[in-house]
Specification:
This protein is mainly beta. It contains 1 helix and 15 strands; from the N terminus they run H-E-E-E-E-E-E-E-E-E-E-E-E-E-E-E. The protein has one domain: Jelly Rolls (Sandwich). The longest helix is centred in the N-terminal third of the chain and has 18 residues.
Amino acid sequence: MKYKIAAILLVCIISTNCNKDTSPSQPTEYTFTFNFSEDTEGWDVEFADYPVGEETFYELSFAHSVLPPPLDQNTYSVMISGNNHSDDLFMYLKKKITGLKSNTEYHFTCQVEVASQYPQSAMGVGGGPGSSVWLKVGATKIEPAPIVSGTWYRMNIDKGNQAGGGQGMNVVGSIGIDGDDFVYTLIQRDNEDQSFFVQSDENGGLWLIAGTDSGFEATTTIYYNTISVNLRETE
């Protein structure tokens, strides 16, 4: 009888182990898409790399606005504009996302669609209005913000400078369009070829950022039409 009971127990153990799912869990993936159709969807606009108190001189402005003609006047976007007297103006949007796993590393990719009217081949003061204004995207654990450094506003994250990226942001190309005419055109840029890893904070939060770093010493006005972000938990 003892042998019979032991055999039954062994069969039960084997059966339980066979039915148990031992396959590894799949990494969690999040996709966020913002098209600004109703409002700015929680994205804030800020500026850096200009002297403290010179907002009026630099003509800094932004708005939730329809796309400019000849683009669809029924489509909303976020317009950002500034006059780059410093040869280094940084204009950007930022947004905090929540609901991620805490203190977890994610693979970050981002695609941005903007309306630009500046030909890649055009010449300008200090640099071309298209070729010398670089679009950057990034994600950071801390909130990106301008801080006072001497008499200037500088960024508190490593965004790089002009054509160079930093630990918190990638350069995804210029805002230059094809052709020779100054006509607003939708262009797409992404960091698929230079994606990076970023860690969420202890509460499962992360800051997204997209902006332009300019070497063109005059006015740049662009419209952010869509921003799409993918975060994939590292295995």
